[in-house]
Amino acid sequence: MNNAPKPNIEDLPTPTQLRRSTIIASLTAVAIGVMVYLPAEYGTDPTGVGSMLGLTEMGEIKQQLAAEAAADEALHGSDDSSSLINDIFGLFVGTAHAQEVWQDEITFTLAPGASTEIKATMEEGATMNYAWVATGGRINFDLHAHADGEEVTYDRGRGQTSGDGSFETPFAGDHGWFWRNRDDADITVILQLRGDYSEIVRSE
């Protein structure tokens, strides 16, 4: 069995060299902590190196996410009654919205080639919300108004089956739709209206 050669005393580090190596390693660890760990984990960058390396932004995001998580836990975990009240309030608002009704609902059927006009009498600056759906085929329409030499077109379509929207009148008069069935079968249209108008006028 061969024995390993014993190291020479001259080759071993002296106590001074060991202390210097320990100090250098400690300083390196501190430098890494200040320049890398603090910016990356806590968003703290006393030297500016973290910002240069993009680590500070990473740390700030981590801290923000942690704060949001803590706030969310405190909000939902510590006060069940508040959560219940919020749920009830949301249910009430949703139900009220679902129960919102239209002022008028007009249903009419057009034979192939037939047309009709449905308009609402409105003052200047009035608004209207509408929604409509056609069954049995596709229909053409022109949403417009004209009175005392003024005219406006809000919307028009060809071969459509539904539509919805709103408009504000630039002048007083009758504002509404001209409908025509260019299909080969009867088409039924259901038109729902809600807004600032005094009456509905229909003409063939």
Question: What does this molecule look like?
Answer:
The radius of gyration is 38 Å and the shape is rod-shaped. Helix content is 37%, strand content 36%. It has helices at 15-42, 49-53, 55-77, 80-98, and strands at 104-110, 115-122, 127-135, 139-147, 150-160, 162-168, 173-180, 187-195, 199-203. The strands form two sheets. The protein has a five-stranded antiparallel β-sheet with strand order 5-4-7-2-9, with no helix packed on it. With 204 residues, it is an alpha+beta fold. A hairpin with a 2-residue loop joins strand 4 (139-147) and strand 5.
Quick structural overview:
With 204 residues, this protein is α+β, with helices and mostly antiparallel strands. The chain has helices spanning 15-42, 49-53, 55-77, 80-98; strands at 104-110, 115-122, 127-135, 139-147, 150-160, 162-168, 173-180, 187-195, 199-203. Mean pLDDT is 80; it is low at 78-82 and 91-99.
